[in-house]
Amino acid sequence: MKVSKISKEQKKEEIVKTACKLFAKNGYYNTTIPDIAEALGMSVGNLYNYFKSKEELAKYIMQYSSKLLGEEIRNINEMDLPTKEKIFLLVKRFIEIAEENPELIDYFLRVFLSNREVFSKGCEGFLCVQEVVTEIMLFLEEGVKKGDLRNQDLFTAFVTIMGPLGGLVFLKGENILMDNPLKYSEELAENIWRALKA
Amino acid sequence: MKTLLWIQGLTCNGNTHSLLNAENPSFYDIFSKIKLLFHPAISSDEDLIKIIKDITQNKISLTFLVVEGSITKNKSFCRVGDFSIAEIIDQLKDKAEFIIAVGNCASFGNIPALYKENTNVVGLQYIFTEKKGLLPPNFKTKSGYPVINISGCPIHPAWFMQTILALYYEKPLILDAFNRPKEIYMYLPHDGCIRNEYFEWKEESEEFGHKEGCLFYNLGCKGPLTHAPCNKILWNRTSSKTRAGMPCLGCTEFNFPLRENYFETKKNIGIPEEVPLGVSKRAYITISGVAKSLRNERVKKKLEETD
């Protein structure tokens, strides 16, 4: 019983990665469940065993990505380090994850942000990205509490971190960057630190 | 007959006022069962110094020594005859079956312990969080109990009466980490707060006195962080602060007067620095975000306008 559950989770992961690539490449509406099934080498009927609809799959991908990134930020949050060092780690780790899983970031930029109607029920507001948002909020709160970061509105602080990260990955996706994204990591972290510090 | 002696240190008399407001049993009921040896606001003919002497000479047995107010050794701040309040307690501490601190002053020092002019003001066994009050940390009365703290600024009369009755009938009292009767202080004002629906959905009140909205996020309410049954045992059997639209100030807690800005919730980057007891900050943020995302339309309306 346990073995089949694990393998079902693994299969879901495989579906997520493939679907994610197709959605990001061809667009949400131009990608069908048969397209995804074909790319995976599985039957359409079998794919429906995992996800009842394309919409459910689309939302699951967001939740999956949020959990993955949220766990990484949580690890950083739990480290006993000054806030400045944590910002440098956070930026570096975000860019590394984007390099390791480009399809997830592409999906976020090209599907989640562009096809909001798909996500309006069940993925609205906080619901599909709660792990990432929670961890960033905790990160900021602790920084302010320690006196390292300036106390300000949550949303301005939040986008001061997430905006530049998304922007860099977007530029990479557009093939505009001259260098490997990781080369920009330290300077970007320095900018974020200067913008947020007390 | 069991006896009770009520003495006062540095106090505003708030707990005495509460005592007079007691019901079931009332002030008269309880003192028909227990002999009231002396109360500073009520006794006129009795000689307190003589009563104390008789107790120390074992001519009178003392069941309950009730102390209201903070304790100081400094006679220019508080004296009873020629003695400081600390000296009086020193004389009586081994004679009483039970010592009961009524109110936050006697329990934890409270506002008088913040005096800059007299740095020697403490509670009976605590000074705020520390067990460094007048009596030693391991002090116990003849009955085996430490000082029993009935905290609050002031106490609700029922909290006192329930405690006295339990001890009168020799029922065991379980005490919490701050020596308060668990039966009373295991509740939070959040329990029974009629604004809980607003708390659940993170719909916040911006003003005092409104019927709608939770007072936690903007107005400094300590209801989810304070041990007190204020919404279970109502005041005057009628209401409570939070029911009336006034934030809980956390007046039963050891750290009650140490905070600043009682009507403001300290926030870092929009997140309350202190979150409700029992949840981590991570859990609080997640559940708040989810509750806001799901939007309960009912709690966004004035109550009169709801279906």
From TrEMBL, chain A:
<keyword id="KW-0238">DNA-binding</keyword>
<feature type="DNA-binding region" description="H-T-H motif">
    <location>
        <begin position="32"/>
        <end position="51"/>
    </location>
</feature>
<dbReference type="InterPro" id="IPR009057">
    <property type="entry name" value="Homeodomain-like_sf"/>
</dbReference>
<dbReference type="InterPro" id="IPR001647">
    <property type="entry name" value="HTH_TetR"/>
</dbReference>
<dbReference type="InterPro" id="IPR036271">
    <property type="entry name" value="Tet_transcr_reg_TetR-rel_C_sf"/>
</dbReference>
<dbReference type="GO" id="GO:0003677">
    <property type="term" value="F:DNA binding"/>
</dbReference>
<keyword id="KW-1133">Transmembrane helix</keyword>
<dbReference type="Pfam" id="PF00440">
    <property type="entry name" value="TetR_N"/>
</dbReference>
<keyword id="KW-0472">Membrane</keyword>
<dbReference type="InterPro" id="IPR050624">
    <property type="entry name" value="HTH-type_Tx_Regulator"/>
</dbReference>
<feature type="transmembrane region" description="Helical">
    <location>
        <begin position="154"/>
        <end position="171"/>
    </location>
</feature>
<protein>
    <submittedName>
        <fullName>TetR family transcriptional regulator</fullName>
    </submittedName>
</protein>
<feature type="domain" description="HTH tetR-type">
    <location>
        <begin position="9"/>
        <end position="69"/>
    </location>
</feature>
<keyword id="KW-0812">Transmembrane</keyword>
From TrEMBL, chain B:
<feature type="binding site">
    <location>
        <position position="248"/>
    </location>
    <ligand>
        <name>[3Fe-4S] cluster</name>
    </ligand>
</feature>
<dbReference type="GO" id="GO:0044569">
    <property type="term" value="C:[Ni-Fe] hydrogenase complex"/>
</dbReference>
<dbReference type="InterPro" id="IPR006137">
    <property type="entry name" value="NADH_UbQ_OxRdtase-like_20kDa"/>
</dbReference>
<feature type="binding site">
    <location>
        <position position="193"/>
    </location>
    <ligand>
        <name>[4Fe-4S] cluster 2</name>
    </ligand>
</feature>
<keyword id="KW-0004">4Fe-4S</keyword>
<dbReference type="GO" id="GO:0016020">
    <property type="term" value="C:membrane"/>
</dbReference>
<feature type="binding site">
    <location>
        <position position="230"/>
    </location>
    <ligand>
        <name>[3Fe-4S] cluster</name>
    </ligand>
</feature>
<dbReference type="InterPro" id="IPR037148">
    <property type="entry name" value="NiFe-Hase_small_C_sf"/>
</dbReference>
<keyword id="KW-0560">Oxidoreductase</keyword>
<comment type="subunit">
    <text>Heterodimer of a large and a small subunit.</text>
</comment>
<feature type="binding site">
    <location>
        <position position="105"/>
    </location>
    <ligand>
        <name>[4Fe-4S] cluster 1</name>
    </ligand>
</feature>
<dbReference type="InterPro" id="IPR001821">
    <property type="entry name" value="NiFe_hydrogenase_ssu"/>
</dbReference>
<protein>
    <submittedName>
        <fullName>[NiFe]-hydrogenase II apoprotein ferredoxin-type subunit</fullName>
    </submittedName>
</protein>
<feature type="binding site">
    <location>
        <position position="190"/>
    </location>
    <ligand>
        <name>[4Fe-4S] cluster 2</name>
    </ligand>
</feature>
<keyword id="KW-0479">Metal-binding</keyword>
<dbReference type="GO" id="GO:0046872">
    <property type="term" value="F:metal ion binding"/>
</dbReference>
<keyword id="KW-0003">3Fe-4S</keyword>
<keyword id="KW-0408">Iron</keyword>
<dbReference type="InterPro" id="IPR037024">
    <property type="entry name" value="NiFe_Hase_small_N_sf"/>
</dbReference>
<dbReference type="GO" id="GO:0009375">
    <property type="term" value="C:ferredoxin hydrogenase complex"/>
</dbReference>
<comment type="similarity">
    <text>Belongs to the [NiFe]/[NiFeSe] hydrogenase small subunit family.</text>
</comment>
<feature type="binding site">
    <location>
        <position position="221"/>
    </location>
    <ligand>
        <name>[4Fe-4S] cluster 2</name>
    </ligand>
</feature>
